[in-house]
Write a structure and sequence with these properties.
With 724 residues, the protein is an alpha+beta fold.
Length: 724
């Protein structure tokens, strides 16, 4: 049975009114401090395109490319295409003699399934680094028989277009391909000339503005047509191809030259410093830590200033083995940044939390009250205590929120230029909609990357390092609040937009959206209606609770558990009562995921404190659809550090998936002048839905499409518009 959902998604109050002049900003307006705690928190943040990288080896062979489901904030995909290369797919006899195999073009299975992996990354809120490589095991000369065949593989990648289609979530592409591990040594085509040719081709194939990173600075020198000795004096032209070139350093801190990465460390770092305002620097810590400790390079008093100087944006997790026994203090401070919040923490924690960018709200002042259609002023100060600035393109928005309903507009704030060890002072003069509801509104700044739709508004967003300012449902940072007051002179400008902008920005039409009653997989209760009592399936004698709900796309399971585990493993299990198919998925603390039905595409788990949330896609993965009954539903925490004992659980007997969908649109009041028109289009998750629009509760003849245009011809047109 199809449920009918009555939706107050577009409430229009239509009032004939002459257009009045726009409000102006009072020059003497006194702004009020937001009352936010401006000290830096020491929370470890997983912000997009920076920080700890999670590596995933993507196994690709002719007619056999695997699909993967990464969930980390920054995922490096090591795309192993040696199966298509004669230098890697041959045979080796007992004496170690290698017989070359066969070169193949990349095939349809490769492109189809690699796209599925990229799509999983997008749905899971990841950002992506990519390295194509012919070798994953340190085997010499793994490339195809000819340089031209390698170029053909690259041209196939261009022609397929997946780099273009997913460029909004791709942080960078390493030049990779040649040599052992794709690290550009020990291969057929590892001369400087060949690597410069490869860089030139990739800068053309990889869509602008995605950076392309090289393994060593001298490759850039060769490509740029300068002597290596001139690197330190190279002047970078803004917005040039050269500005997209960064460095992947897979010998990081491994010696005084980072295992041959640098030929003159001071000179090469001078070159790198200017490159990394617009491109990436990161890589892998040296695996041989005993060898690394023969040098002073890794010592905190040397490493921390260099991380700031070189703008380190990402690194793998071997770092903890070097720095977990050092304590951060004043002796490791650098100029023009306040790191005092970390005094007494381990150097490991300090470095981990400052890789890439780290924004701290240092001041926020707002108008106390603003009339409808008036100007809201917001003045802020934001310090970047991280090693780098964001490299991926960021979208900036101001969001006004009241009771879970919100409006949003683009603002002129370029976070890509909020550089390390600097404080910026963005100011926003915002014209409010004429029909904004009177009352207290919360103001948020949202910085995000990626083409996220309304259901993904919380993903790939930047969290500030402040206490109690993060709205996980919106993916936005609290700046303060103000009171909107009713105007005795109704206006007809329903738009919401910034007026003090240096660039032309699109105006928001003032549409109101909501996150009430929606499930946000973030490991916390994101709003007071996310897991309401009617979604509580079970409460046991220990106070453990299990909530279950679904929309047309996902099953959501949320547990609030009492447990004690040194190394928790988060389990969800249930059975499809109709088909008998069982689902068991668990997530370990190190990122390992087990799923008994193959690749858990679209599955996500988040946890925080007592709470753990799971998202399971409907459809073929576990044969779920509306009307399906699942049984024996269990969320269990095991302790991996204690023989995998059950540390806490909550169980429910059954749940029937509802024929349901999400509605993101919320009630909105607008004022229209005579003869004005307005297009009403609600945001919903469902497909194949039918609509009926109503005026003051009476069905409007013929108004059965998703979009409805209202015209203010007479006073009688005023009233309540809704749809079902």
């Amino acid at each position: 049975m199809k449920f009918t959902k009555i939706i107050a998604a577009a409430l229009a109050l239509l009032c004939g009114s002459a257009m009045l002049p726009k409000a102006t900003v009072g020059a003497e307006e006194v702004l009020l401090d937001s009352g936010i705690d401006y000290t830096e928190s020491t929370e470890t943040l997983g912000n997009p395109g920076a920080g700890y990288s999670s590596g995933v080896a993507v196994n690709c062979k002719p007619n056999d490319t695997k699909v993967y489901n990464p969930t980390a904030s920054l995922v490096v995909l090591f795309v192993d295409i040696g199966g298509f290369s004669s230098g890697a797919n041959g045979t080796t006899d007992d004496s170690g003699n290698y017989t070359a195999g066969t070169d193949y073009d990349l095939d349809e299975t490769f492109f189809t399934n690699f796209r599925k992996t990229l799509e999983n990354c997008r749905k899971n809120g990841c950002t992506i680094g990519i390295r194509f490589r012919y070798d994953a095991n340190g085997v010499r000369n793994p490339e195809p028989a000819t340089f031209e065949q390698m170029c053909k593989h690259i041209e196939q990648i261009r022609k397929d277009g997946f780099l273009e289609d997913y460029k909004d979530v791709i942080a960078y592409v390493e030049s990779g391909f040649v040599g052992c591990y794709g690290e550009q040594w020990g291969g057929k085509y590892c001369s400087l000339e060949d690597k410069a040719k490869l860089l030139d081709l990739l800068l053309d194939v990889v869509p602008d503005p995605i950076p392309v990173t090289v393994r060593t600075p001298n490759i850039f020198a060769k490509w740029a047509g300068i002597e290596e000795s001139e690197l330190g004096e190279y002047v970078l032209e803004p917005n040039s191809k050269a500005s997209r070139v960064g460095l992947y350093n897979d010998g990081y801190m491994g010696s005084d030259s980072d295992l041959g990465t640098f030929h003159n460390r001071e000179r090469d770092l001078k070159w790198l410093r200017q490159q990394t305002y617009t491109s990436y620097y990161g890589g892998e810590f040296s695996g041989n830590l005993d060898f690394a400790k023969q040098y002073d390079t890794y010592l905190p008093e040397n490493a921390v200033p260099e991380m700031y100087y070189s703008h380190l944006s990402y690194i793998n997790s071997n770092i903890f083995k070097l720095y977990q026994d050092y304590t951060f203090g004043k002796e490791y401070d650098v100029e023009n940044v306040d790191n005092s919040a970390y005094y007494g923490e381990t150097v490991f924690k300090f470095i981990r939390d400052h890789i890439g960018y780290r924004f701290v709200l240092r001041d926020s002042d707002l108008s106390e009250s603003v009339e409808q259609n008036g100007i809201l002023k917001v003045c802020t100060k934001i310090e970047n205590t991280g090693f780098a600035n964001p490299i991926m393109q960021q979208k900036a928005e101001i969001i006004l929120e009241k009771d879970g309903n919100y409006i949003r507009t683009a603002v002129d704030a370029n976070a890509n230029q909020w550089y390390s060890c600097t404080t910026v002072s963005p100011e926003f003069d915002l014209k409010l909609p004429a029909g904004i509801e009177a009352g207290k509104w919360n103001v948020y700044l949202k910085l995000s990357t990626g083409e996220n739709d309304i259901s993904e508004t919380n993903v790939r967003s930047i969290q500030f390092a402040n206490h109690d300012t993060w709205n996980s449902a919106l993916g936005a940072n609290y700046l303060g609040s103000f009171s909107a007051t009713e105007s005795d002179k109704p206006q007809t400008d329903n738009d919401f937009y910034q007026i003090n902008t240096e660039q032309e920005l699109p105006h928001s039409d003032g549409s109101v959206y909501t996150y009430q009653n929606l499930s946000v997989v973030d490991g916390i209760s994101s709003n007071d209606t996310e897991y309401a009592e009617d979604k509580c399936t079970v409460t046991d004698d220990n106070g453990n609770q299990l909530y279950i709900t679904n929309n047309d796309q996902y099953l959501y399971v949320f547990a609030d558990l009492t447990y004690d585990a040194a190394s928790p493993v988060y389990n969800l299990s249930f059975q499809n009562k109709t088909s008998g198919k069982r689902c068991w998925i668990y997530y370990q603390g190190n990122g390992f995921v087990y799923f008994n039905n193959g690749v858990p595409s679209g599955c996500v788990q988040k946890h925080g404190g007592r709470k753990v949330e799971f998202r399971i896609p409907l459809g073929e993965l576990v044969d779920l659809e509306a009307g399906t009954e699942i049984s024996n539903i269990s969320v269990t925490i095991q302790d991996q550090a204690n023989s995998w004992v059950n540390a806490g659980s909550a169980k429910a007997d059954s749940y029937i998936l509802q024929d349901n969908f999400d509605v993101y649109s919320a009630k909105q009041t607008v004022y229209l002048a005579e003869k004005d028109t307005m297009l009403l289009t609600p945001e919903t998750s469902g497909t194949g839905l039918s609509y009926q629009w109503y005026h003051n509760g009476k069905a409007i003849d013929g108004a059965t499409e998703k979009a409805y245009t209202v015209t203010a011809n007479t006073q009688e047109d005023c009233g309540l518009l809704s749809f079902a």
